[in-house]
Write a sequence for this structure.
């Protein structure tokens, strides 16, 4: 090979290396732009969802001040709020519609945990450790209540999969022994009623007590702590927010107990 041919070969190799480097830089830049775009869209959706939740809270605060039959009939209804071009739907539920981890007896906790636990789970250990968590300490100090459902992961018998399945059905914000079944999540209601769909439907349609409900299952809402579920958008772009609130305490119209913008598990349909 002549000297000129060798030089051309070297130049070709250099050009190919430069092209490969440029392709890598272009791919990295494209990935960076795509990630930045997704992050910006995520932040935008979160801001819109929070604005929708705040708008729903303002509406509910006004209704709560008015009181009367209008306020009393809001619980459980799926309402639509006009907010620019967004489709905002929301629902207000009493916190008593969920099974209380701090107040429910073992007879109600056990069937729910057993139905949601994996085949290798020790249900008896999970229930006993939860009940022990609710007892006063040996030194006589008052027991520190569970502050979130996620604290169950610290107790024997609970794993992440079980806690994730429990989260949409339970509460740590009220201490009632039973559940307000007319507005309870369907799965929770059926578990507490041993799968009796006709009894569950009768309770939901009647809104009150029904014959055949096991003792201690059905309670009335206290009217103090509520869970607001907000849904913004449609289809694949839907965004959800869940806010636990207390109405009528202090100078403010309401107080926010907790806000879940990342993994709320509810359905308004």
């Amino acid at each position: 090979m002549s000297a000129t041919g060798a030089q051309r070969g070297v130049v070709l190799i250099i050009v190919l290396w430069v092209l490969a480097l440029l392709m890598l830089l272009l791919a990295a830049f494209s990935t960076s732009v795509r990630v930045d775009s997704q992050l910006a869209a995520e932040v935008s959706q979160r801001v819109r969802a929070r604005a929708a939740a705040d708008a729903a809270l303002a509406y509910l605060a006004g209704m709560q001040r008015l009181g009367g039959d209008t306020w009393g009939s809001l619980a459980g209804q799926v309402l639509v709020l006009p907010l620019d071009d967004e489709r905002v739907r929301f629902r207000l539920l009493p916190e008593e519609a969920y099974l209380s981890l701090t107040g429910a007896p073992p007879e109600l906790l056990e069937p729910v945990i057993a139905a949601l636990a994996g085949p290798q789970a020790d249900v008896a250990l999970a229930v006993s450790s939860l009940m022990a968590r609710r007892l006063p300490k040996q030194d006589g100090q008052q027991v520190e209540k569970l502050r979130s459902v996620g604290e169950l992961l610290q107790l024997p018998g609970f794993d992440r999969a079980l806690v994730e399945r429990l989260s949409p059905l339970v509460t740590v914000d009220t201490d009632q022994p039973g559940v307000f079944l007319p507005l309870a999540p369907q799965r929770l209601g059926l578990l507490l009623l041993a799968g009796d769909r006709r009894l569950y439907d009768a309770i939901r349609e009647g809104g009150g007590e029904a014959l055949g409900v096991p003792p201690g299952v059905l309670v009335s809402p206290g009217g103090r702590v509520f869970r607001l579920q907000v849904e913004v958008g449609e289809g694949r772009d839907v965004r959800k927010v869940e806010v636990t609130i207390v109405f009528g305490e202090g100078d403010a119209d309401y107080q926010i107990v907790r806000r879940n913008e990342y993994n709320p598990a509810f359905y308004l349909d």
User: Anything to note?
Assistant: The chain has a mean pLDDT of 84. Strands lie at 78-83, 86-94, 99-100, 170-171, 225-232, 239-247, 254-260. The longest strand covers residues 86-94.
